[in-house]
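Here is one chain, start to finish.
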Amino acid sequence: MNLALLVTLLVASSYGAPLNDSISEILDGRIVGGRTISIEQAPYQASYLTNGSPGCGAVIISHYWALTAAHCSIRSNVNSIVIRVGTDVRASGGSLHQAVQIINHPSYSTFPATDNDISLIRVATPFVYSTRVQPISLASSPPPAGSPVVTSGFGTLTQGGSVPTSLQQVEIYVIDHQVCNQAYSGRITNTMVCAGVTAGGKDACQGDSGGPLVWGNQLVGITSWGSGCAQRGFPGVWANVAALREWVRANSGV
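Its structure:
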């Protein structure tokens, strides 16, 4: 067998490995289950309210700016949007801040997959920092595959299920870009980052969109999309904050 053919067969074998086998080499046995947390454990967490109702998450990045997913804000009237911060209760508490400006990423698209899924929200009155309200720094580079990350929000506890009354957080792991791209038939771009667990059962879900994916003390992702919620073999997908960092800085100064 010549060398070129041998290399071709080895590459084909590697790319053809089952997704779950590829992920299990990185992730098996290291997952902490989802749990209720206090807002002091994630003081950057915010809620994106439309006409007074929680619909998406958001993330505090400065006194006047929050990030969310563009698919949450793309059709929004700014006068109908309020950002709630400083509470770990889904529908009450904290402080309310009227939005005065929405800046959606100009390259946001939904085909062949939701891409550049990020938007900036400017509020009229500043977020007052405390142990319950804090900005989070933005990552300048994405975490390597296998890194533990946490995501949080007030979204449903199961796909299509009920919403919690209290803030939830789950620890998952960054999935190799190539492995994730294979799972989603080539739709994963450089402005996306994937995370999940081998067997499914840990993920963000409906209502968590626009919320944070955090590595250490840095924001690395904005909750975006996936195949259902916590499905085996299909990691969740977040907007890659590091890849979109310059756009955020250019439009907000943050």
